[in-house]
Design goal:
alpha/beta; 15 helices
């Protein structure tokens, strides 16, 4: 029987040799560069597809870094304090994603309640697109209310929750019910057309909530959270100062990668106590990052250089939708474009079905839409996002810093061309 000492030890192999063995299969291969995407592609699927500018990348090299979990990354601290000051809050917390920021807010606001419940819009991003994290990780029940969405409604009420509905949703102190712990409002509201919610709504909501709670015997203050994935777009469209828009909110998640062009990161802002609880939640969720100043530096750069240009994205989205309606008969299901998100439906000549709001679609109809968008991509190099409600009929084009006027023209011409080629729901031979 051989002794264990006679067996070769992998640790005796020099590290450099082991690395060469591991890397040998990929030596000689070429990899795509990390600079800029192909100039032939116009990517309007989302405003998250932007790439860092050379100057943004350069900002990393001049930043002071440290271990942020230990509170020693000066660049992260600067970002948190800056965003908190912009929005008029006492403190901020840098997290990797907007989803984590919203989840930290749920955990923090619900921490002092048994069976906490959040009143939320049924078509909000937090309710639909964040993986059910409220139930899975925050032990939070979501009380879903239908947002006001009719284009004929007063513009300042679109994408909001009706106060009478909120009053009905406030829970009285009864062991049969969960506890109303918070209200969440998305601003801008994505799937209802990129609608900005004005400051007056939040002011009135705060007053109404206090009155409702007193009438229901609820002794605690019900905080308001704003999912601000595109909060700067709301500020631009409404010509509102961020601190004024969010004055009556108790917490705000401020995304740096949607529209602002940073590669990642969201800052959650609120009171000192709230952020203290959120910091503990971030740790439990695995969001504590070490030298995360490399990301924070690009977030600071985005705040300094990419906020003032957001009007360009809104104006391009509006020009885009105006041309599609005027020249191609496209349909705007949510009314006029208000921010950088243009939602539209294919012309009736392409998609002739009359579809109600509650239409769930059928496979053949969905295939037509997918085929049209595939044709737009293959022949024109234009990417847009499909499947935004009404059975997948609604399509979204998101405008951002990487889509300039030339890209806008290409997107408009491409959509007008494919709409003409697909009249009757079938592609004409070219």
């Amino acid at each position: 029987k051989e002794s264990s000492s006679s067996k070769p030890s992998t640790m005796a192999i020099p590290l450099s040799s082991r690395l060469r063995t591991i890397l040998r299969p990929i030596q000689g291969r070429t990899f795509p560069t990390l600079s800029r995407r192909s100039s032939t592609i116009v990517d309007c699927r989302s405003d998250t597809v932007t790439l860092p500018t050379p100057a943004m990348l350069q900002s990393i090299s001049i930043s002071r870094l440290g271990d942020d979990v230990m509170g020693e990354d000066a660049t992260v601290t600067l970002l948190e304090r800056t965003v908190a000051e912009i929005f008029g809050k006492a403190a901020g917390l840098f997290v990797p994603t907007g989803t984590m920021a919203n989840l930290c807010s749920l955990i923090s606001h619900g921490a002092s309640h048994d069976a906490p419940e959040c009143i939320i819009g049924s078509r909000s991003h937090m309710n639909i697109y964040e993986g059910g994290h409220a139930a899975m990780h925050a032990s939070m029940h979501l009380r879903q209310l239908e947002e006001i969405s009719s284009p004929s409604s007063p513009p300042d009420t679109l994408a909001t929750l009706d106060f009478d509905d909120i009053a009905d949703a406030i829970r009285v102190d009864d062991p049969h019910y969960p506890t109303t712990a918070m209200v969440s409002i998305e601003n801008t509201h994505n799937v209802l057309g990129g609608v900005p919610v004005p400051p007056a709504y939040f002011s009135n909501l705060r007053t109404a909530l206090d009155t409702m709670c007193a009438a229901s015997g609820v002794l605690h203050k019900v905080p308001v959270h704003i999912d601000g994935a595109r909060i700067f777009h709301a500020c631009e469209a409404l010509e509102s100062c961020p601190s004024v828009l969010t004055e009556h909110a108790d917490s705000v998640s401020v995304c740096l990668s949607k529209g602002l062009g940073a590669p990642a990161g969201t800052v959650l802002v609120g009171s000192e106590d709230f952020i203290s609880r959120a910091r503990r939640a971030r740790k439990r969720l695995g969001g504590g990052m070490r030298q995360s100043g490399v990301l924070a530096a690009m977030g600071i750069f985005a705040l300094e250089h990419h906020v003032e240009r957001l009007s360009e994205d809104r104006e391009r989205a509006q020009r885009f939708s105006d041309v599609l309606v005027r020249e191609g008969g496209f349909i705007l299901p949510y009314g006029p474009v208000r921010t950088n998100l243009a939602f539209f439906c294919l012309p009736k000549e392409v998609f002739p079905m009359e579809i109600a709001d509650d239409w769930t679609g059928d496979e053949a109809s969905r295939n037509v839409i997918e085929d049209v968008l595939d044709d737009l991509k293959e022949r024109h190099g234009v990417l847009v996002g499909g499947g935004y409600g009404r059975g997948g009929r609604v399509i979204r084009a998101a405008f951002h810093k990487d889509v300039d006027d030339e890209g806008l023209e290409k997107a408009m011409k491409g959509l007008l061309d494919v709409a003409n080629c697909w009249k009757g729901g079938e592609k004409k031979s070219m």
